Amino acid sequence: MAVGAIESRFYAELVQTLGLADAGLPKQYDREGWPRLREAFEAAFRSRTRDEWSAAFEGSDACVVPVLGFAEAPNHSHNRARGNFIEVDGVVQPGPAPRFSNTPSALPRRAPARGEEGEAALRDWGFDTAAVGRLVARGLGFAAAH
Q: Over the stretch 82-124, which tens digit does the pLDDT of each residue have?
C-alpha cells in the first residue's frame, strides 16, 4: 500500500482505519517516535491482504492506495476512468503525461523490435561505423538501420 497522509485530517483517518486510534502512538511529527509508528503501521498492514486494505480505504480521505503491478494497473477503476493507459500496436502502456486540455500530447510510437535500432543507439553512444560493423559481423543480431 502507498500512504501519503501528510495533513493532520488525512493522517487521523489513516490511523482510524488502521485500527490504531487508541494505540497510544507517538505524535505524527515526532521524529523520535517514527520507528514506533513504522512498526505499528507495518503490523497493521500485515494483518490483512492488499485487496482487503484497498476495500477498507476505498472512498476515504486517508490518502492510501494499493501498489499495483503493471499488469493490474490498466484495469484499475481510477486508471480506466481517466484513460491513463493506451494501446499502441497491441502493447498497453501509460499514456502521455501530463495532459492539457488545449495542448494535446502526441501518442507514443510503437516500441522498436529487438535490435531494430541497435546500430543507431551504438552510434549515439559514440561507436564509429567501423566498430558498429565489427559488432554486426560478430552476429550480435542488430537489424538493418532505418
A: 999 999 888 898 988 888 888 888 877 777 777 778 888 888 9
> What does the angle CA 45 – CA 49 – CA 55 come to, to the nearest 5 degrees?
90
> Cα-flanking dihedrals φ and ψ of residue 106, to 5°?
-75, 145
User: Measured at the alpha carbon of residue 120, what is the angle toward residues 119 and 126, in degrees to the nearest 5?
Assistant: 95
The model carries a pTM of 0.66
Amino acid at 35: P
- List C-alpha distances in Å: 38 to 28, 32, 45, 55, 99: 11, 11, 10, 22, 36
In CATH terms, the fold of domain 2-65 is formyl-coa transferase, domain 3 (3.30.1540)
Give the pLDDT of residue 142: 64
Indicate the DSSP class of residue 46: H
- For the record, the C-alpha cell of 146 comes out as 532505418
